[in-house]
Amino acid sequence: MSTARVVLVTGASSGIGRACTEAFLAEGARVIAAARRTERLADLHAQHGDAVLPLTVDVRDRAQVSAALGSLPADWTPIDVLVNNAGLAAGRGPIHTDDPENWDRMLDTNVRGLLNVSACVLPGMVERGSGHVVNIGSNAGREVYPGGAVYCATKAAVERITRGMRMDVLGSGVRISQVDPGMVETEFSLVRFDGDEAPAKAVYEGLTPLSAADVADVVTWVASRPPHVVVADVLLYPVDQAGSGRVARRSS
């Protein structure tokens, strides 16, 4: 039986999740890559072989999450590290004109999804007295900007949950961390702009944003600290950013 760490990454099919998957694999871990898009997970498996276990699951569906994680092959348990990465931003308008469907998508994915997965993984970690949960938040959880009230609220909830989770497992040996990136060029803006590439690209014009690999580098570093060390939270910005809406753009 393999002695390599088992890492579960949600939202593993793209962006930060995929980068985290590849970064942990590069360190010799085995990764349970969880996401909704089966074809992208199949691509990951094709690239990395049996070091990746594709897991098609929608984190918003508690029953589906419980069934999927409850039926993992024996050699893919226990889970040593959980990276709660699945998340999205939807809608850009003020609350009084925004589509409430956008609120539901963000609340169900960013908050309930994190809780659904954590509720399945944390009990085993506490019972064993070891394990590490890394929640992916956002600088948006620390401040608010126009048109982002609900998204910012979901990421603020992640921060509150992370702090409370750390208190709840105190004394168990389980570590709880959070990584909050600023501007990262992934499919994030493309999703928020409903697939419209021009405005999605304009978000990053004139500056150098973080890459998904930059964030994954921090996540793997956090997860590689000695067992007695907890990196509680990390705020990660590109040098061209100093807060939400506070960016330095270079003229072309």
Automatic annotation (TrEMBL):
Task: Kindly give the Pfam families that the UniProt entry links to this protein.
Answer: adh_short (PF00106)
The alphabetical list of record keywords is: Oxidoreductase
Gene3D superfamilies listed in its UniProt record: NAD(P)-binding Rossmann-like Domain (3.40.50.720)
By its UniProt entry, which InterPro entries does this protein fall under?
KR_dom (IPR057326), NAD(P)-bd_dom_sf (IPR036291), Sc_DH/Rdtase_CS (IPR020904), SDR_fam (IPR002347)
Keyword Oxidoreductase attributed: yes
State whether keyword Signal applies: no
GO MF terms, alphabetically ordered: oxidoreductase activity, acting on the CH-OH group of donors, NAD or NADP as acceptor
Q: Show where the Ketoreductase domain sits.
A: 5-182
* Similarity comment: family membership: Belongs to the short-chain dehydrogenases/reductases (SDR) family.
The protein's name in its UniProt record: Ketoreductase domain-containing protein
| Taxonomic placement | Bacteria, Bacillati, Actinomycetota, Actinomycetes, Geodermatophilales
